[in-house]
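Deliverable D4.2, example record:
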Amino acid sequence: MTQEAPKLGSVPETTSEQPFPWPVGCASGVGSLPGADPAEAVRLVFGELPDLPYLAELPARGPGADLTGRTAALLVDLPVETTPGGWRFAARPGRDLGRARAMLSADLDALEEVASGYQGPLKVQVCGPWTLAATIGLLRSQDPALADPGAVADLTDSLAEGAAAHVADVSKRVPGAVVLLQVDEPAISSVLRGMVPTASGLNRLPAPEAPAAAAGLRRVLSVSPAYSVVHCCAASVPFGIIKDAGADAVGFDLSQVSPGAEEALAETAEAGLGIFAGAVAVPRSPGSAWAAPAPSAVARRVTGLWQRMGWPVSRSAGAAAGRADVAGQVVLTPACGLASASPAQAKAAMAGCREAARLLPELIEEERP
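Output generated by the structure prediction step:
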């Protein structure tokens, strides 16, 4: 992308009332959904999450529709293939990569058709460099790419180029959209703790230093002009590394924020990052009984967390300058795992997040000092 051309997917003008590229009281999704019909998935998302829709992944279609395989379809000059143990680098593009690219193309075609005329924020997701490095094997040793610093660097550069091209493509297909890029890092906590096993399973790969981990993320985020979200649904979310990487927002499951992690989250929020809070969890099995929580209860989980972090949920005379209202800074999402839910459960979770988000301004007004 040239410097002279308009920035495809760049962030729209914001105001002092709402400094984020989404409306106040907003909800969105995380990534995966049940089912195998791209057009049906896009219609569901745009119907339930009209303020910040997203391009969902449909892993039920098989290899190539999963997070790693779908992102591998975007890599530049780094072909991959499937093995009984998962994805690995390949000597040349083959059938597996062709299938992944075909499914992504079908998803984009469905998005272009359903989103025709749409104007507003639109989120797309890619797998992050550290999770890719932990889940794609080397061609010869079968160890994860994480075992080879040179392979990690090549993978990160390839992902950065591919993600930027993906944002540009979506922006051209849906010209009224402001594209947000979510970088999913479900494995980054394991990477940072040195818990990723070798191919034999007998040893663990060394953990990268925190500055190197932040630099890898920064490389991917910096190439695209899109507003960036780094999402980690695992325990021990590395809020500091995500902030140091230059992310505009961080996403996580509320259930994974321990009391000990609230201080790091508070520093992240106070630094002005957007917050994508996974607030509604669904069962991991489609046959499990489940009732969606009341939207008011979901909204109060968020305001309660802000109050526990020690500062007001809204700007006031006693609040530090620059702290945005929770209703503007936070985007409510379902927790991870919608791919394993039933279609009805997924729809209810998205609707619950939407209604809870719309309640946030009202709850904040009630709690103003």
